[in-house]
Amino acid sequence: MSPVQPRLLFLSSIMPNPIGTGTAQRGFHTLKVLRERYQIDLLIIADQSDIPDATAQLVERAIVLPAPMLRDPAYMLAMLHHVLAGKGLLRQSPTPTAWFHVTSFRLRLARKLTAQADYTIIHAFRLSSAPFAWNCCRDHPACQLQLDIDETESRNISSIGQLQRQLGESVMATRNLADGSFLQRQEELWLTRFKRLFVSSPQEQRHLEQRFQLEELRVAPNIVVPQEEEFPSHVKPQPHTLLFVGSFGYYPNRDAVRFFLQEIAPRLHDSIDFRLVCIGYGLKDDFRKWLGAQQYVELPGKVEDITPWYRKADVAVVPLRAGGGTRIKILEAFAQYCPVVSTRIGAEGLQVSPGRELLLADSASNFAAQCLQLLHDDELRRHLTKNAHRLLLEKYSVESLRQGLYD
After folding, report:
1. Residue 231: CB partners within 8 Å, gap ≥ 6?
2. Domain 240-396's class?
3. pLDDT single digits (tens) 162-179
4. Can you name the residues that pair with 358 across neighbouring β-strands?
5. ω before 239 within 30° of 0 (cis)?
6. Cα–Cα 20 to 30 A to 284, which of 69, 198, 213, 354?
7. pLDDT tens digits, residue range 218-258?
């Protein structure tokens, strides 16, 4: 008879999903590796989306905290304040909207729903899950607390605010810089309370080591399952296809597309016929209308399988100017043998070298020049895609994540 596996509580504000956003994919892959050694209870504390079948198969029990109702006055007051502040009737709340669900009522409810199990480990995913993990641990004093923050959220959101300030978007900049200060205080409050802390890159690790004395800080990289079949890396006939992948609910992705279309695309248009294919969640309202009206754009939006789009693409472009963590969109391109042109911020956190796995450029003119170089040099394309795929296998594989979580 095989021994009974110890039990683990996986707390997350985001639903783990193998085909979701980059953060949702990280949660799913982490859950899948942890399932090798533990029986897992999954508690979703904020996300109301359905549990994907692939996620449900990994857990013994899945619980989604109900949407906040009138019986949670702290949440309702926070939401009312947020709405009135949006109309200019009140000052902005000092709390980011992603933290509205951290209320006494929901903390008590999470603890009540998990009190009866005997957990060896409580694993919190993302910073806003930390208060829930700490509170649930009161019923399991012998368990080990660990927290996967993925990225330093205060640094991420502050970089967005700084970019918005440079672009003259003063209201959004003020909001995000205030959120950055709030998150920095939360990091100071919670990070040192956990036995083990995980981040997605050595760069994030070094940043936190400079700020905190942490008991155990480990790199658990983002991963993408590689494509086994190598695609031909020659350039397709014109019009060329440039591919951008990302969640458009995330400001840096919207800014990246604007930057590309307003400053990079005109430089390319002088030399080649091309289209920019934009794939991802969250294409809404004014941004969708603006994007749909642009000359060079195709808008599939959300797709179930991204592989065919990489097969059609000549280059994956990542012209990000703010943000943090590591870009799963770059790892996806590596997995699909699609060459990449990125800004340095876009490739931040990945253990890459320009000219070996991808091309880097920050200015619009250099970015356009790098795209053109890839479109005219099949040998360079083969060189980059082979090296990128090799790096994926060495640094961003399931085994790499397994080593980060366990060894």
Report:
1. 310, 311, 336, 337, 338
2. alpha beta
3. 999 999 999 899 999 999
4. 354
5. yes
6. 69
7. 999 999 988 766 666 667 777 999 999 998 989 999 999 99
Place of tokens 């008590």: 108
Angle, helices 104-114/73-86, rounded to nearest 10 degrees: 140
Cα distance between the two ends of the chain: 26
Beta bridge partners of 318: 342
Sign, CA torsion 326/64/146/224: negative
Structure tokens at 61: 């029990």
In a 13 Å sphere around the CA of 273, the CA atoms on its Cβ side amount to 4
This prediction's pTM? 0.92
| Tokens linked to 40 | 């897992």
Half-sphere exposure of 58 (CA within 13 A, CB side): 26
| Alpha carbons 361 and 218: distance in angstroms, whole number | 30
CB of 155 closer than 8 Å to CB of 201: no
Cβ atoms within 10 A of the Cβ of 240, count? Answer: 20
CA-wise closest residue to 356 among 386, 384, 328, 321: 384
Q: How far apart are CA 61 and CA 239, in angstroms?
A: 50
Q: Which amino acid, residue 77?
A: L
Phi, psi of 189, rounded to the nearest 5 degrees: -75, -40
Strands 274-279 and 297-301: what pairing?
parallel
CB 239 within 8 A of CB 191: no
Cα(156)–Cα(168) distance, integer angstroms: 19
Per CATH, which fold does 7-223+399-406 belong to?
A: Rossmann fold (3.40.50)
Listing from the earlier edge strand, what are the strands of the sheet with 61-64? 61-64, 39-44, 7-12, 121-125, 144-150, 196-199, 217-219
Q: Encoding tokens for residue 115?
A: 């009190």
Percentage of the chain surpassing pLDDT 70? 97
Asked if domains 7-223+399-406 and 240-396 share a fold, the reply is yes
**Beta partners for residue 145, in sequence order:** 122
